[in-house]
Amino acid sequence: MQLTESHRQYWQKNLRITAVLLAIWFIVTFVVGYNARDLSFSFFGWPFSFWMGAQGSLVIYVLIIAFYARYMNNLDQEHGCAEEEEA
User: What dihedral do alpha carbons 44, 45, 49, 52 form, nearest 10°?
Assistant: First the structure.
């Protein structure tokens, strides 16, 4: 199967956004979590390390998922491969 230029652009944009979001996930999960003990300031009345481990990273994960879903829906519509809605 021959890929058209539109298909190539679609996959390049898809891979690029996936790489960026995975980098954000890695930073939130490992870098901030590993260095959280050094971040000794109060955030919403709790130590930042506790807040980031208990709530902050989960909020970031949900935002990543929501952004990816919205971005891919727009990308699908832009390249004409969006799913049709059933009534």
Answer: -30
Q: Are 40 and 80 in contact (CB under 8 A)?
A: no
User: For 60-69, which contacts have Cβ atoms below 8 Å and span 24 or more sequence positions?
Assistant: 60/24, 60/25, 60/28, 61/25, 61/28, 64/21, 64/24, 64/25, 67/21, 68/17, 68/18, 68/21
Length of the chain: 87
Grouping H, G, I as helix, E, B as strand and the rest as coil, residue 87 is coil
pLDDT in tens, the chain (87 residues): 677 888 899 999 999 999 999 999 999 888 877 776 776 777 777 777 777 777 778 899 999 999 999 999 999 999 888 777 655
Q: What is the pTM of this model?
A: 0.77
